[in-house]
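Predict the holo structure. Ligand: KG4.
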Amino acid sequence: MTYEEEMLALAQNAAKKEHVRILALETSCDETAAAIVEDGRVILSNVVFSQIDLHALYGGVVPEIASRAHVEACDRVIDEALRQAGIAAEELDACAVTYGPGLVGALLTGVSCMKGYSYALRKPLIPVNHIEGHIAANYLTHPELKPPFLCLVVSGGHSHLVRVEDYGVYSLLGQTTDDAAGEAFDKAARVLGLPYPGGPRIDALAEEGNPHYLTLPRPHTDGRYDYSLSGLKTAFINACHRMEQKGEVLPKADLAASFREAVVSMLVEKAMLAADEHPELAPAIALAGGVSANRELRRRMQQACDQRGLPLYMPSLNLCGDNGAMIGSAAYYRLMRGEIADLRLNAVPALRLVERRTLHA
Ligand code: KG4
Ligand code: ZN
């Protein structure tokens, strides 16, 4: 029996077990995170080591620093995840790792590390798409949630409106034509002089401000459910610069609130347009990704879904950002389908969730 055959046999046996425990590692950006997840739904441990302090000085993630920090932290977060779950490495059923999308060096540290664990422990290796992980954070928060549902994925690098047809099966309805939602928040925050990462800071500041202080443009997009954020971001930056040139003190809370208002309205509007025009595609709606922690987005989505009698699912706040548990959940469903990797697994920095648009543009 070859090594690959042995792993496939182990994966098939694991999939039949009453309880399946997966060790998952996430290193795609600036969090080194490991978790043990049971049956795709129960978190036995979830350890996140954030590198924010290392990058804050530079105002953003420095890829080389991220990779080095991951190398140093991987083993520690894995040991801690095993310790907190109270299980020995031998008791695991599989090892999972994010292999894309993300920073190539950061991804490679995780992929190499997990290949090592998988080989040494003789446990199958499960490759996970990071975006799929964000969606799966909802399975951990809401044990009753099952596909199909519509999901608004809003993270630092990605903004998509997808339909989750089944576990691991996605169709694309819309996406940003330029900046991702988190990226836009981070850039706007920088103009306001807020430290990295700006998204959560702009959100907190916006709570105190007037969302109608500044009116920002609503760009047109060709795709019906697509949206564009770079135009309103540029308009925002220009407005701030004009005020500074006139020697005015920036009303930061009002500006933050106005920016948040413009971005959130656009996201909610597009998601609801799709839900209204295709109720057959949207028996329920979910949010996913770092920006799903945004308070205004959560409130407005809740209102819009309540008005339509649509169930809304949001990850709990501790699962919105990058973490290992969401990777462990997505990995479980891959294991059930026999989707494992061999030791040639490579990082894929531009990995996509859906290859091309398959639904109503
Ligand atoms: O999903 P995530 O943790 O990492 C990626 O996969 O990109 O998302 C991080 C992004 C950052 O841009 C961060 O500023 C943004 O999510 N973010 C927020 C909030 N919390 C995190 N943006 C707006 N409001 C928030 N409360
Ligand atoms: Zn992420």
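The longest strand covers residues 42-50. The beta strands are 21-26, 31-38, 42-50, 94-100, 125-129, 149-154, 159-166, 169-175, 285-288, 312-313.
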